[in-house]
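Q:
My hope is that you can spare some time for a protein that puzzles me. I hope you can help me see how the letters and the C-alpha cells relate. Thank you; the sequence and its C-alpha cells follow:
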Amino acid sequence: MLVADSDPRAYDKNGHCGTVDHKGNGCRPFILFKSTDGGGITGEGVIDGQGGKPIKEHDESWWQLARRAQTEGGAQNVPRLIEIDDASHIIFHGITLRNSPGFHVTLKNARDATFWGVRVDTPANARNTDGIDPISSQNILIAHSFIRTGDDNVAIKAGAAGATRHVVLVDNHFYWGHGMSIGSETAGGVSDIQVRDLTLDGTTSGLRIKSDISRGGVVSDVHYENICMRGNRRPLDFDTRYDAHAIGNNIPVYRDIFLNHVSGETGQLVLRGYDAVHPLQFALNGVSFNNTARWLIESAKIVIGPDGVTPAPPREVALPPSLVSTDCAKNWLPFPVTDTPGV
C-alpha cells in the first residue's frame, strides 16, 4: 500500500494548500505524470489519498475542508491523487485508488491511455472526488473497472486546452457517485464517445451530459448501449442549464446522441435543450423504465427506434411500448472490496 502524506506543505504551490480561497488550485497532486511517453501503474496494490484523515497540524480532514468551502462559498485547496498532463501511452491495471482528497485521476491533453481492472473506492459524502476524468484528451479506454466515489464516477470534459475525442468505456460497474457524466466543461468539444455494458447501481444521476452558457460547446456522436440502472434519482440527465445562474455566450449543443437498450427503474428522465434554435438531438431505441418514471423534455428532437420507449415520451403517446428491454439481472455485481477503506 502507498499512503499519501497528510502535510499540506508537501503539495503546496503558492502558500494556499490546505486552505479555502477563491481559486482552489494551490496544491500539486500526490502523483504526477508530466510530458511522459509511456508509463503507468500496474499491480494489485492500493494507493490511499487519506482524504478522511486529519490534515497535519489541522483540526479537519481534506474532505471536511472541501465541505467547509462549500458552506463558505469558496474553493478548497486540496491535492488530487493522480494527474496525467501532456502524456501519452499510459496504462493503469489492477490498481485500487481510494480516499483521494480531490479528484482521483485527471487526464489533461493525454493521448492513448488505458484503465483496465481499476477500482476507485471513496465514500459517497467525500465532496469533489471524481473517479476518472479525461479532459481535452484522445484515445482513452476505461474497461472492466469498478468505481464508487463522492462525485462523478467518470466525467469526460473539454475546456480551453482542446477537444476530447475517441473515448471508450466497456464493461464497467458504477456504484454510489454522480454517474456517467460528460461535462460540465464542454467548450472544447466532445465527440466520438462509446459507453457499452455499464451498470449504474445507486448513482444519483445515471447517464448525464451537463453544461451551461458559461462553459458550453458541441457534444456529438455519443453512443450508449446495453446500460443497466437502478436506484437513480435522474437515470437520464441531459441538461444544458447545469448552472441556472451562469453567464456567457457558449451555448451547449448536444446532437447525435444514441441510447440503445437502456433499462432502469423510476426517477426523472431529463432531456432539456437550450432553446428551439439549439435543441437536443437524440435517438432512443429499446429504452425502458417503470411507468412511474417521469419525462422532463424541453427543446428536444427525439427519434424513436423500432424497439420503442417506455414510458412513452410526451407527444409520443401513440407509440407502442418498448418491445425489447435489457436483461439486467445477470449484470449486477457487488463492489469487489479487498479491505475496508479508511474514512
In short: The first helix runs from residue 62 to 72. The chain is about 5% helix and 45% strand.
